[in-house]
Amino acid sequence: MKRGSQLVVPAFFSVGLFVLYEFADRNRALIDHREKVLRFLEFAAWLSVIVFAVRLIDFFAFDVLASRRRNVRAPQLLREIVSIALYAVLVAWAISAIFGRSITAFLATGTVVAAVLGLALQETLGNLFAGIALHLEDSFGVGDVIKTGETLGVVEAVRWRGTRLRTFQNHIIVVPNSMLARDRLEVFPRNNLNARVLQIGVDYNVPPATVIGVLTQAAANVDGVSRDIPCFARVGGFAESAVSYEIKYFTNDYSQRDRIDADIRKAVWYAFRRTGISIPYPMRVFQRYTAPDAKHHPDAPKILERLRNVDILSLLPREALATIAETANVRVYSQGETIIRRGDAGVSMFIVHQGSVSVRVDGDEVAQLGDGEFVGEMALLTGETRAADVVALTDVVAVEITKAALQPVLLNHPDLAASISAKVMSRRDALDSIRDDASRDEEEKTILSRIRSYFGL
Description:
Elements: H1 2-26, H2 34-70, H3 76-99, H4 103-120, H5 122-137, E1 145-148, E2 151-158, E3 162-167, E4 172-176, H6 177-182, E5 185-188, E6 194-202, H7 208-220, E7 232-238, E8 243-251, H8 257-275, H9 300-308, H10 318-327, E9 329-333, E10 338-340, E11 348-354, E12 357-361, E13 364-369, E14 374-375, H11 377-382, E15 389-392, E16 396-402, H12 403-412, H13 416-431, H14 437-455
Antiparallel strand pairs: 1-2, 1-5, 2-3, 3-4, 6-8, 7-8, 9-16, 10-15, 11-14, 11-16, 12-13, 12-15
Helix pairs in contact: 1-2, 2-3, 7-8, 9-10, 13-14
């Protein structure tokens, strides 16, 4: 009905316009500017004839002859290009014959116009020529499934500007032909055996041979799965909670893939239920974290043992030493790292638990200390600035005793301050036995007063 109206309407108009032209030609005296009017009436009549002729040629060439010979519907893009070419040739002939204009002059004038239009319509012309190229290459046809970028759908029409796709969500998308020609295009032809792979997770305890047989049989009986190439199942991998199996099947109608996938999953569920195979839930194995042994980090008993061997602290009660051991800090230093920097404020002393350190004054080494030896006691007891640099000669583990740990002990036992100051002086006497007794007594009184002042005794 639609094709018939496309032929009848221009035929009706052409007959009517020719009748009007004959009437005007016989009654020229009644018409002003009769020559010009007659030419336009004749041209309009011939335009109707041209439209009728082109549509008639299109009908016989593509709907009758081509469909009978190839038993396929001619591409819409090819029909439109042929129609445009015929219109251009016949209209040019009509202008030349009716208005007396030569076709060459018409083409020369049209060249400038064509250049201007070409620049303005670059994208449109690009779509046109891309559509022609896709048609000549026979890349895809109506009914095929194509994928370009993120777009997947069934081809419904290929026009001069773009290709119309119907997605699996039943949306209509028009993709420009230039984009199809430029991007990667994946084609799933109609009436072609296109492969499809599904993944199914199955319990680890079920033998693969049993699962493969059940999956193959369940998928083979689903409508849409081709029998020409049998479907098959295989082990796809080992996942966290299940063995991952793959079902590979072939179908002649890839546009039905979502429906076929759903039917296969349904068939597999029932087949598993009949055979007692379970689809596992996600599983996780939890293991309690156990920290590695800190072999070089002393615990409270070892720290207490170190404190008992420090002469300036040996007079403290065992309970006080145990309290200090619990609050002591364990510090780890790498070889070459500075533990104490000369001139810095200090409120703590360090006991070398493992490793060795170098005590330096103005860059010159004055002593080396090893396991059990200590440094920085004056900063702990009096808060004075550091008098030397202490640098780790090896990787060092040190125990740091701070003022905050020692102060509660001295507040509870203020008489210990004098004993500690005496031990400090004894330590200095061992290092410097040259000074006289008077100066040592004076220095001991000075240290004792500084200790009492520093700890608020």
